[in-house]
Task: structure prediction
Amino acid sequence: MRGHEPRSSSSCAACKLLKRRCIPNCIFAPYFKSDEPKKFAQVHKVFGASNVSKILIEVPEEQREETVNSLAYEAEVRLKDPVYGCIGAIAMLQRKMFELQHDLAIARARLARYAANSSAACSIMHSSAACSIMPFSEPPAYDGFLNSFSLTSSEMNQDGQMYDYSQAPYIIRHE
Amino acid sequence: MNTRCAACKYLRRRCPSDCIFSPYFPPHDPQRFASIHRIYGASNVARMLQQLPVNQRAATVDCLYYEAQCRVQDPVCGCVGVISLLYQEIHNAETKLAKTKAQIALFVDSNSAREDFEVESDLNVLLHEEGNEFAHLGPSNQVSFGFT
Result:
């Protein structure tokens, strides 16, 4: 006679969705609580439970919560934007960063002009006094986040287009 | 004999003529599909592509590949780490911009103050000179000309 296994009322969200018994050392249980079913549902839809399990097993236990959070974020964004996912957000942030660098360069140039004029006026009015010019540093070169991520040569699609990942936005929209 | 796409080679299956992967996983780049398969799985990717118009699938695969590579290199944060870094850099740049604008404002204020001072000095000189010119008229007449 088959033994009756009582359904655990404390099954994690993953095991509930996967309709399986939630074992005591379930790898998903600490991170996918039963009161957050949507979180695992999204992660499972994008990555798949087995892939998530493999990723979690690869990382140290103390980093698994952060891993789950980043997977959940990626999955949510991917479901909202099935084409570009997080890359859309990255491209938008890159654009914002370039605009800010541009504004910063203009502001610093303007400040330099004011400082130069002030220095000239000071030297005329107070020839013996020391005029302080507000120092400013050169804006740091923004190489773009993709420089820190090594890609294997250039990315080409079947049309032979070259993707320049150092420019933003680098997504070529196929319309 | 048709050449199998990288996906079908990886999955060790026949590559049909209407293979959903073949336009985006050419056989000369096996690592592309391997990365995506490792993170997302073939069935998930096939489902994602099937749900999209054909003209959006190439961009989708490119983005999936990039995200998969990020996740392979950084299993904890994936491409979310890149997003966090960008947010941090934007915050730093905004702070620098605000500081620079504040410094500019100081110069503008000091220039305005100097201009006001110069205008007032010139006016005082003018008043003094014209006051001397009309001194013989007496105080009341000076007031009538607008001098206080």
